[in-house]
Write a structure and sequence with these properties.
Layout lengths: L6 H12 L2 H11 L10 H4 L2 H21 L12 H10 L4 H8 L22 E2 L2 H11 L9 E4 L4 E7 L31 E7 L1 E10 H6 L3 H24 L16 E3 L12 H9 L9 E4 L4 H5 L2 E4 L2 E4 L14 E2 L2 E5 L12 E4 L4 E18 L4 E14 L5 E2 L6 E2 L2 E4 L4
Helix pairs in contact: 2-4, 7-9
Length: 423
């Protein structure tokens, strides 16, 4: 059986394949977790003394990992997310090298749930938590999502208890609490608040990014910025759009589709595609009292209408928006002391929801608390592209189901007020 190779021949071939693997492991041992190897493998990995040195450092680093989590592990093998992707690209033709090199890092790596749980040549690469965190921080800088009442969950759902108040009338406040003026020695009358539950269940938001092999080969650290920027920008858009326009079916319930939205009708004879001062005054009067966190959210096309707001005074008029009738001094922009924010998520000028007055602290959200990332060269193998998948799980809805009836007066109030269509 001359085809059978001796152990010495097999070891020689392995040494030829991995090349400078021993030197790479020594470098990794100085700042990363290195998997222990038995003395019997010393002839493959290097001299017995070298293996002992690596294992000694490994024990200390493992203690740091257990005590401090990922941050206590020291540096990862990769300098950046871009370095990680480029290494994966280089491994496509020699997966065995990366399989050996990455095996020691399994305790701190998230297993891919797709084709494989190992390396790119087998179906997918694992992404370190440090890279996931960098994108998560960029998403939470979203000025809309960051203003919501957010909670991090450990499971996949969360139920809240709230009062069932729908009116400020006597006997209805806080869902049924009623107070009385009582004479000395008089009897007290009981009251019972009514409670309600609000339940949220995580919905999945995913972003898929393709990188060509040319990008992987030709770009350096800019690759990390490119991928992070693309993923974060799309998550920002999806989360912001859901807060305003979500349907509640497989995605959060947005404020424009919630039951507590109050809509202010247009003025009699008001021209199409206009905003007049009376619209602003009436929207402001319908806000629920007790909060100073209201903002005006509007489409960019509404800007010229808001800038031109005026109040008739006799036969003349008075500009309402521009201080001293000047364009300057408009930063930060505001109306009635509340900040103005232009968004992509409002309808265009003249349609319902082109301008909304809202307190986003009364919009409830839950999140899993992180973004999972996975990569695969096999999805678009024939076109030489690497597929990167980012997944975030969130849910949201308005705290209230209905608008609130005033103590005195017939107009309802809410945390969310829009302007009806002016067609």
């Amino acid at each position: 059986m001359s085809d059978i190779k001796t152990p010495e021949q097999q070891i020689a071939e392995l040494k030829s394949e991995v090349g400078d693997l021993t030197a790479a492991l020594k470098t990794a041992a100085e700042g990363s977790i290195v998997k222990s190897h038995s003395d019997s493998s010393a002839s493959y990995w290097g001299e017995t003394e070298e293996v002992a040195t690596i294992n000694a450092g490994n024990a200390a680093n493992r203690s740091n990992y257990v005590a401090e989590g990922w941050q206590g592990c020291g540096k990862s093998e990769f300098k950046s997310f871009g370095d990680f992707l480029k290494t994966g690209y280089a491994a496509k033709g020699s997966g065995e090298w990366r399989k050996q090199a990455m095996t020691p890092y399994q305790p701190v790596m998230k297993a891919v749930q797709g084709m494989s749980e190992q390396v790119g040549a087998d179906g997918g690469f694992m992404v370190y938590p440090e890279f996931s965190k960098s994108i998560l921080e960029r998403v939470y800088e979203n000025d809309i999502f960051a203003q919501t009442d957010n909670y991090t969950v450990g499971g996949n759902s969360l139920t809240f208890t709230r009062n069932a108040e729908t009116s400020r009338a006597n006997g209805s406040r806080h869902g049924g609490v009623r107070g009385y003026w009582v004479a000395e020695g008089g009897s007290l009358t009981k009251s019972n608040p009514t409670l309600a539950q609000v339940s949220l269940r995580l919905k999945k938001c995913a972003v898929l990014v393709y990188l060509t092999d040319e990008i992987l080969q030709d770009t350096g650290s800019s690759l990390e910025d490119y991928v992070s920027r693309c993923a974060a920008a799309e998550f920002n858009f999806m989360l912001g759009d859901a807060v305003f326009n979500g349907t509640g079916a497989g995605q959060p319930l947005g404020i424009t589709n919630g039951g507590s939205l109050v809509s202010v009708a247009k003025e009699s004879g008001q021209a199409a595609d206009t905003i007049v001062s009376e619209n602003i005054d009436k929207m402001w009067s319908r806000r629920a009292m007790g909060s100073n966190k209201y903002q005006w959210f509007h489409h960019q096309d509404c800007g010229s209408q808001i800038d031109s707001l005026a109040q008739d005074v006799g036969t003349g008029g008075l500009p309402l928006y521009r201080t001293n009738n000047q364009i300057v001094e408009q930063s930060p922009q505001s109306l009635k002391g509340a900040k103005r924010t232009e968004t992509e998520f409002n309808a265009t000028l003249g349609d319902a929801n082109d301008i909304i007055l809202a307190d986003l602290s009364q919009y409830l959200t839950i999140s899993k608390g992180g973004i999972t990332q996975e990569a695969s060269i096999h999805v678009e193998f024939l076109t030489d592209q690497t597929a990167l998948r980012f997944v975030m799980r969130v849910d949201g809805r308005p705290w209230s189901d209905t608008a609130i009836t005033q103590y005195k007066g017939s107009n309802t109030q809410s945390d969310y007020i829009n302007l009806a269509a002016r067609a």
